[in-house]
Here is the input.
Amino acid sequence: MKYKVLPICIVFSFILLAPFGRIALADKKPVSTPPNIILIFCDDLGYADITPFGSKKHRTPNLDDLAQQGRKFTSFYVTSGVCTPSRASLMTGCYPKRISLHQNESNGWVLFPGNKTGLNPSEITIAEVLKRKGYATACIGKWHLGDQPPFLPTRQGFDYYFGIPFSNDMGYWIPRRNYPPLPLMRNEKVIEEEPDQDYLTQRYTTEALQFIEANKSKPFFLYLPHSMPHAPQAASPKFKGKSTNGLWGDSVEEIDWSTGQIMKKLKQLNIHKNTITIFLSDNGGATRWGASNAPLRGAKGSTWEGGHRVPFLISWPDKIPRGTSTDQLATSMDLLPTLATFARASPPKDRIIDGKNISDLILGKPDAQTPHAAYFYYFRGTLHAVRSGKWKLMVAWRGKVKDSTVMFKSPVLLYNLDKDISETTNVAKQNPGVVKRLLALLQRARHDLGDDSRRTKTVGENTRKPGFYQNAKTLTRKKPKTKPSNGDASMPNIIIVFTDDQGYADLSCFGAKDFKTPHIDSLAKEGMKFTSFYVAQAVCGASRAALLTGCYPNRIGLLGAPGPNAKHGIHKNELTIAELLKQKNYATAIYGKWHLGHRKPFLPTQHGFDEYFGLPYSNDMWPFHPWQGKRFRFPDLPLYKNNKVVNPKVTPKDQTQLTTQYTRHAVEFINRNHKKPFFLYVAHSMPHVPLYVSSKYKGKTENGIYGDVIAEIDWSVGQILATLKKHNIDKNTLIIYTSDNGPWLSYGTHGGSARPLREGKGTTWEGGVRVPCVMRWPARIPAGKTCDKIAATIDILPTIAKITKTQLPQHTIDGEDILPLLTAQPNANPRDTYLYYWGRHLQAVRAHHYKLHFPHPYRSMNGKPGGTDGTPNPYTTLRTPLALYDLKKDPSERHNIIDKHPDVVKALQRLANAARKELGDSATRQKGTNIRPAGRL
Here is the structure.
């Protein structure tokens, strides 16, 4: 379960007085305002993908409400089975063939980035018709009628545009294509390249709501063409994995949520009764990705009913009869003349348009009939079929047809759609008169619109030219063709450098004054620094378990720091980052400290890592430690390579070489695997006590051996970065540098600093669990940024899964996808809450910038200095009461403000209660309803 913040706000009530009202003269009737119009246009949504049209897989309650508030059309058609032609018809009221947007200049199905053709500026769009009547207009979403300046929405009647100018699969990271980066535009300017598609529906919705709010006092036209559920499907974390139909269902359910947000906003503004809301799809569903067109035959791209017939809902409270349906034929071309009628505007009269006024059908007038004597099905420029009344005649088709019959020197198929909506039975032989009549209609269409069929090649008499822009160029630049073999940003190399007990202030980029870390500083300068980054618990084993599994440690039963006698470890059913990436054929290795169980079933090579070299647990679990060894009587410290002990008795001299050896193995691993994607986990044993450093750094800093150790770790980072650059793969390598918990303060000169944070390792104060973190990935992360939003090690696994398009585990994880933070998406905030556990004790919770501590004991130096020369001074046990802190103003947690914000305290207590129920809490003796066991021998 992923915990979301409960609303934390103080609600103020105001009495708004309105002493002056609108006064109408007695001899004049008040003039009604033209209706607002919202047109929601989905991409590739199937006929049966929403519950008003029979979906059993998707939950679409808001669309159910829309259907109940208005009217459903069950024989509603778009003019093409693919994007561009369909959208051209919607905007202009014309068959695509009439305005020559049935294909691009290279005879391709749709327009592509940088094409010279587009919607001719001389054509008149719905937006232009409505603007003449004073409407504010906006297009938010997918345009796909040309990406050159004359073809953009702002040149076609829209005041405002925000979205992607073509399909979401026309980006740089699409395999086997040569597209430039996918552009996200505001008006006529590209504001982002390759935006995170998981958040597109959410961002479109936010923009739509802002447009509605800004134009609530005048008539507006909002055209909201969603990019989803077109492949590649995407959904925000709130919806991902929530449907029973994979990403297709997730994206459909998020579109339903978006529709609900819009309807809610209209009611809040009290303008819903004068707003026409329309919902439909641009063509039939892409069944290979999860769509359903049942009971129709065919799918996207075809001229069977499943390619052209789409779900259609329309609502206009008090005008359109509630909860009604019609099976009369209507088309997307009809929307221009019909909406013009509702807005008291005039459709174009100086040209042929094919759409008809269907206002009587929409308003449910008795005996209203379709105004269409015939409807023609084109596949690109080829005339495939005609429908007239209940009859549909096909004379050309794509794919095999078992029941074709040769009549009139041509194979034809005739279907009675009233009785045979699925087009299963050819009745041409039994109805020759109908076939003859429909063939005559087809011939009339050929003369009017043309037909590119080889057999009936005809040039249409009444077609118009498309727009043409000679100096066309792509909106974004193509990436260099020479790139590293693993240069696909959906498959970046991933390196996690995880230090041990390094404090928040132990890097110069985080404020350290006593020693320098130039290589780690360069990661921050060339990437992003996270100032509110958390580990799951302030102790070694539990923290590492959280990093690798994306779970709070108590969810998976891995707590504390397992020692040499432990018989438990990570369960075989838990999925690690390494196992996740093995699904994508990544090479994987860990060099350093493991600490998730040292028995064979728990070792790294049983959990997704190809290679392992390092210590199985902390470097102080050995006989030579001046304090720990005497207390716990540890056995000799072993060094492992894969599943075997290669050094059963690590000595102090051996420890001086640990950082160097881990670095050497890391560099060699990169050298061997630079031509394929890899995951490298460098889990340093230092600066955990006892401290050891090689001769090349011993005594080289002004901060004693602790500073020497940090300097050598910085050198290690530099070696890794230099190796990446040598192979020209550094730009597509995500490097994450962080620590497993805060500093061990009782060791004084051998421990680090968490300032300005309170306390350190072993506590749930900020100094124990907030750690330094920098991430560098030039391909996606903007340079020199600082992020103060909440993020955590448990978020790394789902973020990597998002980046690599890898399936998350089926069981519950606690991490969030923080890619929007990495890529500096505006207003991104994937995680606004965090839980602070010590063992199984829930000691604090955070929501936004407020943190609530529950009464608990904790260890503290209580103002005393730590020890020297590797021997600790004892802690004092203190106890905190129930306490609230504002971490934005008081990161040091010094000022308890609990009396000032009772509402905040109550909200945080509710958050804690939900967490206790699911994850447990030893203080309240709750076991947790959704926890899993550790592995045990």
